[in-house]
Amino acid sequence: MSTEENAATKEDMMCTVEETGIWCPKIFGALLEDPSTHDVTFKTSDGGSVSAHRVIVAAGSRVFHAMLYGNMKESSQKEIELPNIEEDILRHLLTFMYTGKVCFSMDRCVDILDAAHYFGVEILESCCADYIETTLAIENCCENVTVAHKKNIQVLVAKCLSFMFNHAVELIKLPQFKELPVDVLLAFLESSDVCAEEIEIFLAAVDWYKHQGSQNSEVTNKGIFQLVRYPLISKSDLIHKVRPVEEIDSVLYTAALEYHLLPEEYAGPPEQIKPRCPFFEVISVTPSTVTLEKNKDKTVISRIGSRSWRELCVIKVTPFQQNPLKFTLCLEAYCDRSYIVFSLKSVKFESIPRDRNDVNGFNAMHLKQGEATDVTVSYSGPSKVVVNIGLQSQSVTVRDTSVFLCIYFYNPGDKLVISCV
User: DSSP class of residue 246?
Assistant: First the structure.
C-alpha cells in the first residue's frame, strides 16, 4: 500500500453495503443494542461473546436456523460455541441481519464475505462480492481469486475469473499468476473468454508448471497443456517456442502443425480450434492528444486538444485462423468535416510511420456521426490477412499472426468507438 493510501482517514477506508425495503433499521438496530431482550449468546474463536435474539438470527441465516431450531444440540443451549468466526466479524454479520446495512473496513471485506458464505447469509454474500468486484485490479485479482478458491466462495471466484479473462494480457505476466491454485488455472485455460494471444497463454502455463506444477500431485502436466489451443498459435511460434518445451502434448502439437499445412483436413479435437475472445489492442502513439477508455465490450478513442493536425492511433489486431475478427467503428464527430484515414501495416509497431502519406490501400473515409462501420479481419491463406472496412478492402502479408490498423484523426473533439461484435 502506498504512503498516500496509508494516510487515508478511517472514513475513507470504509465500505458500506445495504439492502433496503425489507427491514426497519432503527427498530431492529435498537433491539440488537438492547441485551436485556436477548435470549442466546455466541462464543467466538477469539474469546469474544455476542448476544442476540434466536428468532431474528434464525430468520437471517439458514445455518443458524438449523442450529437453533433443528435437531442439533445447540437448539437447547443458551450459550453456543462458534469456533470458526471472530467476534468482530460476527457483530458485522448480525448487524446486517438486523438492519440490512453494515459498514466495515475494506481489509475485512473478504472475511465478512467468507462468514456470510459459511452461515448462508446470501444477500450479504452477494453485496460483498459485488463490492469486491468494483475494487478488482491487475495487482490484487490473483490474490483475491486464490483466497476465494481456498474458502470455496464460488460467487467471488467467478467475478475474479471474469476480470482475469478481460485483463489476461497483463495478468499472465505477473509473478502472482504462477501462484494460482490448480483449479483456477484450469478454469482459466479452459475458457474461451480469455483475451490474449494463444502463444502468451501457453508460455504462462509453462511458467506456472515450472514454478509449482511439477511438484503438484493434483494435476499432471498434460492436464494443463492439453487445454492449450495449439492450432491458434502461429506456425513459427509452434516451431520455435512450443516444440522446445518437453511437457507439451506431442499428439496435439503434431495435429496443430498439420492444421497449418492442411486446415481443411484437420482431424484433431474440435475444441482445439475453437477461437478464444477476439483480441485487439489499441495503442496510442500520441498519448498527450489521444486518450483511451477501455472496458470489456468497447474502446473509446478521443482526439483531444484544440489544434487541427493529424494524430495517430494504432490497433494491433490478432484474428483467428478459422473465425474472422469482427468489430464496429462508430465516429462521434465534433463537426461535419470530421474524417478518418486508415492504413494497414505488417511491420513492427516501432516502425509505423506517423505521416499519412504512407497510407496504402484505404481511401479517406468520411464516417457519418453515429453510424457504425463494420470491420472484418480474417486470414485468406498462409500468412495473408485481409481487412475489410465498410466496402473497402486491403490485404497484407504478415510474418506473425498480427497486423496493425493505423487510424489517423484530423479534428479535435472526435471520438471513435470500437465495439466488439
Answer: T
Residue 50 exposed, middle or buried by CB count within 10 Å (0-12, 13-18, 19+): buried
Q: Where are the domains of the chain?
A: 3-135, 165-273, 279-420
Sign of CA dihedral 69, 75, 78, 82: negative
Instruction: Please tell me the class of the 279-420 domain.
Output: mainly beta
Task: Find out whether 325 and 419 touch, Cβ atoms under 8 Å.
Answer: no
pLDDT of residue 365: 62
Helices (H), 212-244: 221-225, 235-237
Tell me, rounded to whole angstroms, the distance of Cα 186 from its chain centroid: 15
Sequence-distant (6+) residues with CB within 8 A of 119 are 61, 63, 64, 93
CATH number assigned to the domain covering 165-273? 1.25.40.420
* Cα torsion 190, 175, 402, 223: sign: negative
Backbone dihedral angles phi then psi of residue 281, each to the nearest 5 degrees: -125, 125
**CA dihedral of 237, 239, 240, 243, whole degrees rounded to 10:** 110
Backbone angles phi, psi at 269, to 5 degrees: -60, 130
For 249-391, strand residue ranges (E) read 279-284, 290-294, 298-303, 311-318, 325-332, 340-345, 372-381, 384-389
Angle at 241 between CA 240 and CA 242, to 5 degrees: 110
Q: Where are the alpha helices (DSSP H) in 136-211?
A: 141-150, 154-166, 168-171, 182-190, 198-211
pLDDT digits (tens, 9 = 90+) for 309-362: 566 677 777 655 555 677 787 777 555 555 566 666 665 555 555 555 555 556
What is the residue-wise DSSP string for 104-117? EEGGGHHHHHHHHH
CB 409 within 8 A of CB 303: yes
Sign of the torsion angle spanned by Cα atoms 25, 104, 16, 143: negative
Q: Tell me the β-bridge partners of 365.
A: 340
Average pLDDT value over all residues in the chain:
78
Q: What is the CATH number of domain 3-135?
A: 3.30.710.10
Q: Tell me which residue has cell 463490492.
A: 131
pLDDT per position as a tens digit, 202-256: 999 999 998 886 665 555 555 888 899 998 888 889 999 999 998 888 888 999 9
DSSP assignment letter at 240? I
Residues forming beta bridges with residue 407, ordered by sequence position: 313, 342
